[in-house]
Amino acid sequence: MLLVNLVKFRHILGNLSLNLLGWVPGRLGSRLRQALYLLVFQEFGRHIEIASLVAFLDPWKICLKDGVKLDSWVRIRGLGQDSRIVLHSKVHLDRGVDIRTHWSGKIEIGERTYIGPYTCLSGDAISIGKDCLIASHGSIYANNHVFANRDTLISLQGHTYKGITIGDNCWIGTGVRILDGVKIGQGSVLGAGSVVTKDIPPYSIAVGIPAKIVKQRQ
């Protein structure tokens, strides 16, 4: 019991210290954060750039590989005991990107992928490939509410989880919504504002609500 309490105290102290230091501006704040990051992250690579006002929850579940760049107001939260978030080399999260696992989930983002401002990723299983371009204000939600029983509040009926996979070298336009259970093949392009409810084969161009394939890339 004592060991469990000590671990919980360490986690609480780590979260508190990390997020308080996020508000310290300038070179001093950067140096203080870098020193703490090396102690609390599951993995923390070299040449990582983290702006001020970035927030983490449970950083010991987060792996940041070499050259990752996180702009201001990014939030990364590893909720759940066995959850894991991995950002591979040179991933760039622009301002306000929000990433959150559920319960025992894993979110993995491949090398050199860019995610634009205020895009949200949430769920138990999200895999994004290498060299993807994901524009602003999108949503990638690998979960759904259960709502079968009309006599019970939807908020009390739980969730379902299937997972989302996005292949390498995809371009996803502004405001695209990708729903749970979808697989997007490598090299695909999704037009701005599309809602993706079904799998997209590799090298497809898809647009609309729901997204439909209009062309194949040659």
Question: How would you describe this structure in keywords?
Answer:
218 residues; alpha/beta; UDP N-Acetylglucosamine Acyltransferase, domain 1; nine-stranded mixed beta sheet; 23 strands; 16% helix; globular; disordered N terminus
Describe this structure in words.
The protein has 218 residues and is α/β, with parallel strands linked by helices. The protein folds into 2 domains: 1-40; 42-216, 3 Solenoid (UDP N-Acetylglucosamine Acyltransferase, domain 1). The chain is built from 2 helices and 23 strands. It has helices spanning 2-21, 26-40, and strands at 43-44, 49-50, 55-57, 62-64, 69-70, 75-78, 84-87, 92-93, 98-109, 114-115, 120-128, 133-134, 139-142, 144-145, 159-160, 164-166, 171-172, 177-178, 183-184, 189-190, 195-196, 204-207, 212-216. Strands 1, 3, 4, 6, 7, 9, 11, 13, 16, 18, 19 and 21 form a 12-stranded parallel β-sheet that branches. The chain has a 9-stranded mixed β-sheet with strand order 2-5-8-10-12-17-20-22-23, with no helix packed on it. Strand 22 and strand 23 form a beta hairpin. Helix 1 (2-21) runs antiparallel to helix 2 (26-40).
